[in-house]
Write a structure and sequence with these properties.
- With about 100 residues, this protein is an all-alpha fold.
- Helices cover about 35% and strands about 0% of the residues.
- The protein is rod-shaped.
- The N and C termini lie far apart (about 100 Å).
- The relative contact order is 0.11.
Length: about 100
């Protein structure tokens, strides 16, 4: 009786191991259809890494790009006196 029970346990373990090894890999939805690779567009100018650091005025900026970043991303800035979305028109982003 012990041999039969041992045979059943060993057989069950072997079957379980075989199923784990031979189980098909799940296919993610995104892998079902091959998407053509989109071409990468490389820019020649690196993106500056600005970050909100407490500066709020045009006199503390060094470029129009920096002032625009601060206006769009940082709280409490005082760089758009006209309220038109263009910062530092007198110093950096003036339209001549």
């Amino acid at each position: 009786m012990k041999k039969i029970l041992l045979g059943i346990v060993v057989g069950a373990l072997a079957l379980s191991a075989w199923q784990r090894v031979n189980r098909p890999e799940p296919v993610a939805e995104s892998d079902q259809f091959e998407q053509p690779a989109s071409p990468r567009v490389e820019t020649s100018t690196p993106t500056p890494s600005f970050h909100c650091d407490g500066r709020t005025r045009c006199t503390e900026m060094t470029s129009c790009e920096e002032a625009t970043f601060f206006l769009q991303n940082c709280p409490g800035v005082k760089m758009d006196g006209e309220g038109d979305g263009v910062p530092c028109e007198g110093q950096w982003c003036g339209h001549h």
